[in-house]
Specification:
The protein has strands spanning 7-9, 16-18, 31-37, 46-54, 58-63, 73-80, 87-92, 113-114, 129-133, 141-146, 154-155, 165-166. By secondary structure, the chain is mainly β. β1 (7-9) and β2 (16-18) form a beta hairpin. The N and C termini lie far apart (40 Å).
């Protein structure tokens, strides 16, 4: 799909930046990379002087964190490189996120759900995706996240590194 990123120029007139979200298969370590190009079918590469910030897919926040028993509750998720084909599930708080089974250790009604209405990370103040859960018992749960094509479920941690509890 053609995409025209928003360009932000510095007031000094000498620098500019833009954001572009590309999502693809693979395992990536977050960090900064150089952007190079090849002019001879990949034999030689030249540094463009541009850098690219690579962000691994992750969920870092959710809202709301309370649900009512036997009622639909849409939970919104915030994070990096989240797509509408990623999944979230709610498991017993004493369990750990592991494996790739959608039903493993779930709370009743917390089965894996595809994220919907996903937005790119360019909209940082907006949620990146949501899922609707209908829990059938009172209790505490933790949130697990599985990126499409990922190796297994990972626990959703807050930016402070603590588990996010849904009650």
């Amino acid at each position: 799909y053609p995409y025209t990123p928003q360009l932000r120029a510095a007031t000094d007139g000498k620098s500019a930046s833009f954001s572009l979200l590309l999502v693809g298969a693979g395992t990536y370590t977050s960090g900064t990379r150089k952007l190079c190009y090849s002019y001879d079918s990949g034999t030689s590469f030249l540094d463009t002087g541009l850098t690219v910030t690579v962000v691994s897919p992750q969920v870092v926040g959710a809202f709301p964190l309370t649900t009512a028993v036997a009622a639909d509750r849409r939970i919104w998720f915030y994070g990096d490189a989240i797509t509408s084909l990623d999944k979230v599930k709610l498991i017993h708080y004493d369990s750990t996120c592991k494996g790739s089974d959608d039903m493993s250790d779930i709370v009743l009604g917390g089965e894996a759900r595809l994220l919907v209405t996903a937005r790119s990370s360019l909209y940082e103040s907006w949620p990146n995706g949501s899922a609707v859960f209908k829990l059938l018992r009172v209790g505490s749960a933790r949130i697990c996240y599985l990126h499409k094509g990922g190796a297994g479920w990972t626990e959703v941690l807050s930016p402070e590194g603590t588990a996010i509890r849904v009650t």
